Amino acid sequence: MAYDSQNVSYESLWQKYRDSNVVNKAREYSRYTLAKLVSEYDRAETDDVNREYITRDYQSVGALLVNNLVARLGEFLFPASARFVKLELKNMSEDQRSKKSAVQAALITIEKTIVDKSKQNGGYADLLTTIAHQAVTGNAALFRDVDTGTYRVYGLENFVVQRDGRGSVIDAVIKERIAWDSLPREFQSQLEQKGFQAKSGQQRCWLYTRVQRVSRSSGFGYEITQQLGNYQGCVYTPGKDYYPEKVCPWIFPVWSLKSGEHYGRGIVEDHAGDFARLSMLSESSALYMQEALRVLWTLTGGGGSVDDIEQAPTGRVIPLQSGTKLEGVEIGDYNKVQQARDEINQIVTRLAQAFMYTGEFRDSERTTATEIQQVATSAERGLGGPYSMQGKTLQIPLAYVLLAEIDESTVPDIVGNILQLQVVAGLDALGRSIEAETLIKALSDAQAAMVAVANINQVAQGILDPKAILETIFSSNGVALDDYRTSAQELAQKGQQIDQAVQAANGLPAGAVQPGQNISQI
Q1: Residue 122 and residue 127: Cα distance in Å, rounded?
Q2: Of 356, 381, 265, 386, which is closest to residue 69 (Cα–Cα)?
Q3: Which tens digits make up the pLDDT trace of 13-65?
Q4: Is 40 exposed, middle or buried (0-12, 13-18, 19+ CB in 10 A)?
Q5: From CA 44, how far away is CA 209, in angstroms rounded?
Q6: For the segment 176-195, what is each residue's pLDDT rounded down to a tens digit?
Q7: Helix 100-119 × helix 396-406 angle, to 10°
Q8: Which one of 125, 295, 343, 356 is most buried, counting C-beta atoms within 10 A?
C-alpha cells in the first residue's frame, strides 16, 4: 500500500532528530570497550561504503568486561533452561475455572512457542548484540521481521528517536544502505514514476524508515512508512500500514533512561572515568615499555666500527682494539612500570565488580532456575535497575510481538483488554518454578511432621490435631492450602472407592459398608 499524504522529507527529520553529542560519546565509549559497535567516522553520513575505520584502544579489558556482562544478561533474560515469559489469563469465566489445568497447559505451550521463536534463525546472537549496544551506548533499535522470522539490529549510527516525557517513542527514523534490487517492486515502480533511474540493480541507496506514533479510535499505535533519499513525494508502506502499540515490530530498548531525554545511557557511561584512566595508563605504559626495551650502545675509543656493531647479527664477534669500551644503556625505571601496573589492576578490579566479572561462567545447560534467580537478584542489586529495564523495554515488547506473530487473531483482544494476558518478565518470570519448589518443600515438611504427630498421638491419645498442623506448615511456607484442598464431594467419592476396594479384598458383598461407615464398624 502506498500513499502521498505525508509531504515531509525523512532525511530532514533524520538531521533534525540527530544528536551529535550522543553519537560522539557513544563513539568514545565504544572505543573503550567494543570498537565495532560505533566506527570512528559516521557511516550514516558518507557514501563511501568501502571505508571502515575502527579506532582501537591500548587495552582489551573493556571488551572482556562488556562481553562477559552481555553473556550473563543474555543467560538471565533469555535462559536456556527456563521460559523468560509467563502468561496469565485474568478474569477467567466459570467454565475456564473448571478447566484451570487445561488453561494453564495451553498457556505454557504458548510460552514455549514464544521462547522457541525468539531464538530461531540465529535470533539469540541478535538479542545479545542488542544488549551489547545498550550496555555501551545505552540505546538500540530492534526490528522483528515477521516474514523471515529474523531480527535486524541497529546502533546509534543508524537511527534517531524522539520520546515524550514518559519515555514512549513518538517518532523514529532508521537510515540504512540498501541495494536497488532489494526494494519491493511496487516501491521501485513508484520511484521510477517520480523520475528516479537506477544505474544498476546493485546501486546502493539510502533508505529511510519512519516509525511514527499516532492516535486512533482504538488507541495508540505506530505507522511504518519508508522514503528513498530526498524523494519525500513518494512514501511507501512496507507490510501493514498500522500496528497497535503493544505489537509493533519496531522496538527501541534502553539501558537506562533519564526523564525528559530522548536517548538512554549505558553502563559504560557510569564508569567512563575509570575507563578513560585505564585507557590513558595502558597507552602510556605501553609506549614507556616500548622505549624501555630499547638498548643504546656507547662506544668509546677508536678501535671499532659503529656500522659493524649496529649491523652485526646475534653471536657475531667484533674485534676491538685495546682501550675501546662498548657499553649498553637501557632507558626505563622498573618502579614506574610497577606503579602504573598496580593502578591499572585497581581500576580493573573495580570495573570487574561493576560488570559482574569473576573469571568463571557456568555452562547454561546445567544452570538451575534457583541459580538464575540468585544471580539475577545480584545483577539487579549491582546494576541498580537496568536488569528490570531490560524486562520492560526489551522482553515484554518482544513477547507481545511474538505472541501476535503466533496467532494474529489475538491482537484485537490484546489491544482491547478482552483477552487479558499478563506478560511477566525478569525475576517474576521464574515465579512458576519457584512456586513448585516451595510446594515441594511444604510437602516434605508436612510429611516429616505427620510422622511426628502420629507418634505423639499414639502416646498422648490423639492430643494433636493433624489438620491444624498441616495448615500451619503450608502457611509458613507461603502455600495456600485451599488451592490444593479436595472438595467434600470428591472426598466422599474417593472414600466409597476405597471402601469398595477393601470389601472386595475381604470377600464382602458390594454395599455391605454404607457411605461414611468404617470397615471396622461392620
Answers
A1: 9
A2: 356
A3: 999 999 999 999 999 999 999 999 987 766 555 555 555 556 678 899 999 99
A4: middle
A5: 14
A6: 998 888 888 888 888 888 77
A7: 100
A8: 356
